[in-house]
Amino acid sequence: MPSAVWKGYLTFGLISMPIRLFAAARAVHTRLHEIHRECGTRIHHALYCPYDERIVSREEVAMGYEVEKDKYVLIEPSELRKIRTASSKAMDILQFVKLSEVDPIYFETSYFAVPEEAGKRTYALLLRTMQG
Length: 132
What we know:
Blueprint: E1 6-12, E2 15-23, E3 48-49, E4 54-55, E5 63-68, E6 71-75, H1 77-83, E7 90-92, E8 111-115, H2 120-131
Parallel strand pairs: 1-7
Antiparallel strand pairs: 1-2, 2-8, 3-4, 5-6
């Protein structure tokens, strides 16, 4: 079963209904791996520190932002979590427009909305209203 890309509420005026958004189409990617031609084994990339001249473990690796050539400010995962934008739990319908009024650039990614059990009747009413 596909997993929802967003879960929240679709609101219109005083009406609110719980929904989930699913990707309507998925891009197909062909994954290739680097293989050692001689024995057929998948190649792994080692994390190498040229300063210490040794392979380092993942636990020794941090994220950093380059402030000038070869000078970095280390950034902790907790700091990245603090600046992450919050996802809204509500999608507000502000107005209805004709399909011809929407720039096609907004159709790059398409989704389908599925109402949660508690919102099925309200969702069906909204669809009937939009169909005119």
